[in-house]
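Hi P.,

Sorry for the delay on this. The queue was packed all week, but I finally got your sequence through. Input first:
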Amino acid sequence: MADLHDLPPEYLAFWREYHLCTLTTLRADGTPHVVPVGVTYDPDTRLARVITSGNSRKVAHVRAAGPDGARVAVCQMHRARWATLEGRAVIRTERETVRDAERRYEERYARTPRPNPDRVVIEIAVDRALGRG
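Then the structure:
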């Protein structure tokens, strides 16, 4: 496990490179639901963000956990390098928050997200970082 206060530069650089990721949420029966996503990570605020449609299953899983949010993990890998961020996720719908997350996505993935009036942000307060790289 890595120290969130002192993540190595290589680890942070890995989270800025173009890599598809996975998001793991838990279904009501406790089984994992794993889907491909784009993720951005801000080490200063320790927030990871996933933009998605508000009617997706992943959003439903986070909402079902209640106002305190849901435990989730996002992970990416490339060959032998991998990195996982874990934390508590909540759904953010504020227009400025969504726009900020879209901007961050565009910066990391070098593409503008397609228009989606139902877009929300799964915002993850990261409290654990794992990886090898």
